[in-house]
């Protein structure tokens, strides 16, 4: 006899939310053991322990996914901590008000955007000067 669809779906959801060991968390998130251990040593991810082994639930997996995304965007680990606090993710260190932490994160992003805008403007000036020099037959 087949298992009713809704019961099978619930079983899959329960399995998906069951705590994972560190190796399975690595596989699921696409991160190395070394990276997870480094994040843990810095207090950026706080896995629970079961019988001495690290286990990662939905909150810890979300933290790891956010860390990956922040790192891919070029954020420092301190900026990652601010972002995690701002999004209400638990980390070690002094607690911050999520609203304040999130505003600090937004401010950091805006500062970075402004700096990138300045760099792009300077590169356009360099490009235009080089184009004009080449058009005039000069060396850049």
Short précis:
This protein is mainly α and 140 residues long. Helix content is 66%, strand content 6%.
Q: How would you sum up this structure, described in words?
A:
The chain has six helices and three strands. Strands 1-3-2 form a three-stranded antiparallel beta sheet. The radius of gyration is 23 Å and the shape is elongated. The model is unreliable at 1-15 (pLDDT under 50). By secondary structure, it is mostly helical. It has helices spanning 5-17, 22-29, 33-41, 58-72, 77-86, 98-135, and strands at 20-21, 48-50, 53-56. Helix content is 66%, strand content 6%. Helix 4 packs across helix 5 and helix 5 (77-86) packs across helix 6 (98-135).
Please tell me how large the radius of gyration is. Answer: 23 Å
Count of structural domains = 1
The whole-number mean of residue pLDDT values reads: 82
Quick one: overall form?
elongated
Give the percentage of residues in beta strands: 5-15%
Count of beta strands: 3
Which runs of at least 5 residues are low in confidence (pLDDT < 50)?
1-15
* Major pleated sheet: 3 strands, antiparallel
Count of helices?
6
CATH class (first level) name: Mainly Alpha
**Cα distance, first to last residue?**
78 Å
Q: Helix/strand-derived class?
A: mainly alpha
CATH topology label: Multidrug-efflux Transporter Regulator, Chain: A, Domain 2
Strands ordered across the widest β-sheet: 1-3-2
Range of helix content: 55-70%
CATH architecture: Orthogonal Bundle
Tell me the series of helices and strands, N- to C-terminal.
Answer: HEHHEEHHH
